[in-house]
Amino acid sequence: MQETYPLRLEASLHKTLWGGRRLEEAGWKNLPDGDVQIGEAWETEINTIVQNGLHRGKTLGQLVNELGTRLLGTDAVAIFGQRFPLLAKFIDAREKLSVQVHPNDEYAALYEDGKLGKTEFWYILDSKPDAKIVHGLKAPVMREFVQKAIEQVQLEDLLHEETVGPEDVILVPAGTVHAIGSGVLLYELQEYSDVTYRMYDYGRLDAQGQPRELHIERSLDVSRYEPSKRIKALPVTLAETTDYVDRCLVGNRYFVSREIILLTAMEGQTGGSCIIVSALGADMHISYGMDLEHSEQLARGQTMILPASLGRYRLEGPGACLYSYVPASTDQAWQAWREQNS
Hints:
Helix content is 16%, strand content 37%. By secondary structure, it is α+β, with helices and mostly antiparallel strands. It folds into two domains: 7-222, Jelly Rolls (Sandwich); 236-340, Jelly Rolls. It has an eight-stranded antiparallel beta sheet. The longest helix has 9 residues, at 143-151. The radius of gyration is 20 Å and the shape is globular.
């Protein structure tokens, strides 16, 4: 049995103040019984457990330590070092989230003990009518004006809200003031970082009746005090054949994420990065090996990692999946997306 093969992971579920039961109601996940409000399913957390093959029962973090660059890929290691580079999540926002901002890598390295900053993107899976997100500010303002609005619990007056719907693609660069609104179900991909500065929480109280912690000074340090230049990204069609459609949803130096709509199958070859595959449609199969003699199944809402050293593979449908990786500087999908979204 070969050491590197497609790794199917069991997502870790996270209870939140603002979560709900929609991940189960919409058929994405099996949730715990009872009135447990689940806000996030972390697909590639380093503590997630491998469900298949030789490494069954090991955590993703253990495999990073054991396999290193064979799992991660040289392009991923060049940017992120010997750690898993990207965190994928499903998010159910029954209620609106707090207003947050993330630092860039340089600020996080200096003030957060060498951690990564965070650029992320959202792919909207479903939303209630007129559901909104916060992305940037309505108009350019001074830092002092924002701080005063936070202190007076009036920051909403300065925030830009954008209505979103299914298949919208939202890039959230580091430094962007943002929040997911109520009634939004989405898939998120981000730099693997836990550095989040909560700027504002609408005066809400937690389950114990206490205000949640805010990180006002640091959020003000890293925020952009202006409207966002672009909120909804423009996906780029890379290929459209009788077998599949390949669209680049978003691209930057940290990740490229593509939507593959399988009509029959698509073949590929791994290279400088591991690939995160999350199934959005019906069950799909991933074949691998010199003659594609091995196969693993991936059900809707599940995620699999293709190690960088895997080699040849074939995705078989029908169905859709999200396909994400750390790009080389010459990555053609990233270049095509950048031209469309300059």
